[in-house]
Amino acid sequence: MKLGAHISPISRSYIENADVVFMGVSSGLVELWIQEMNGDVRSLQPYYQEGKSRLKTYKEMVKVMLDEVRKGKKVCGAFYGHPGVFAWAPHKAIEQAKAEGFKAHMEPGISAEDCLYADLGIDPGTYGCQHYEATQFLLYKKRIESTAYLILWQIGLTGDLDLTQNNAKKDYLEVLLDLLVKDYRPEHEVIIYSASLTALNNFSERKVPLMSLPNEKLSMNDTLVIPPAKKMLRNELFVTKLNEIV
Amino acid sequence: MSKVIELIEKLGQDSTLEVSEASLKEMSEVFELSSEEEQALILGSDELEKIMQTNPNIMAVFFPAEDDDSEGDDSEGDDSEGDDSDEQGENEESKLQYLHIA
Fold first, then answer.
1. What is the pLDDT, as a whole number, of residue B100?
2. Which residues of B touch A157 (CB under 8 A)?
3. Active-site position among A14, A47, A80, A149
4. B97 vs A93: CB contact, 8 Å cut-off?
5. Looking at CB atoms within 10 Å, which of A111, A132, B64, B96 has the fewest?
6. Which sequence spans correspond to the domains of chain A?
7. Strands A75-79 and A41-43, bridge-based pairing
């Protein structure tokens, strides 16, 4: 996520040695940085448009990458964070390339999730951790486990289905709050987190009560971290069953 | 590589470098940055993006989009495959090319 720091040597090598690089990255500075690594770097930003369906945007990204592969070029798709996390287009591009008989693979990367654990001192193994994209979390029935961390990604775009707003509207966040207060007290302290994109800026961490969420100014890069609200309960039935085996 | 980008990259890779106003001023001299670049560097990424005239409307969003399938239309993809079929057919070597996602 952080310019210079979090790119792996092998990922950089793929970028430098590709015939053409398509980039979907998180800041203008990162775009400039990637452009320095290869003579033919093309931004995927123009495919995002206000009011345009997300799926249409992603399909166009897949198509433009596959078109170059079909021409016989060595193509690299460079995406911010982990290219396979919350990322339909990179997965689809690989799936489609393989289906057409081309070699394709994904290199893992350091994602915002990894930065979050390090910056906030959270170990997802301690209590468990649920992750959802904020809008998907609203659209589908999920079983919230309030003894574990709940992490909602892209909270700043909650309810935004076609990138028409660029910032979560208060009304949408009120709906999200309605859902969350079924499992959490309104006063429960939550964290609004944003990873650092360059060494010039630190990560951002704001602790606020859950009920103030609709009034918070949120950016595209913000993530909502809801710490556990209840203690874990031992499942005595299965503890007994395990003991019986021994 | 642009001097500014080179410096930010170095800051991200060298654990001995400190990010403070004094050290940024010192490094700006070493990297021969203009006074405008030095000042922007001290103010942070947002200011730097302004003076470097980067894309101001970067969208950094990726959604799990599978459920949008109902509104989608795969015909564009099908068409493109059709357009390229001759190229694929005439040159099996194209199958040896790669797609890397990093």
1. 79
2. 61
3. A80
4. no
5. B96
6. 9-99, 112-226
7. unpaired
Q: Where are the domains of chain B?
A: 3-51
Rounded CA-CA distance A243/A89 in Å is 47
Give contacts of A163 with chain B, Cβ < 8 Å: 59, 61
Give the integer Cα–Cα distance in Å for A213 and A23: 32
Q: Flag if B84 and A97 touch (Cβ within 8 Å).
A: no
* Structure-token match 């040896």, residue found: B96
Instruction: Give B 30-59 residues with CB within 8 A of chain A.
Output: 41, 44-45, 48-49, 52, 54-59
Task: For residue A193, give the nearest of A179, A203, A182 by alpha carbon.
Answer: A203
pLDDT at A246: 66
For the domain made up of A112-226, the CATH class stated in words is alpha beta
What is the predicted ipTM?
Answer: 0.86
The reply to whether A156 touches chain B by the CB within 8 Å rule is: no
Interface of A with B in 177-236 (CB under 8 A): 197-201, 220-221
Q: Does A38 touch chain B (CB under 8 A)?
A: no
pLDDT score, position A52: 80
Does residue A80 contact residue B59 with C-beta atoms inside 8 Å?
A: no
Contacts of A103 in chain B (CB under 8 A): 96-99
Can you tell me which residue has the tokens 């799926």? A55
The CA-atom distances, in angstroms, between A197 and each of A5, A239, B16, B63 are 10, 45, 19, 20
**A112-226 matches A9-99 in CATH topology:** no
Spell out the CATH class of A9-99: alpha beta
Structure tokens at A140: 């589908």
Give catalytic status of residue A80 as yes or no.
yes
SS3 B38: helix
pLDDT of B82 > 50? The answer is no
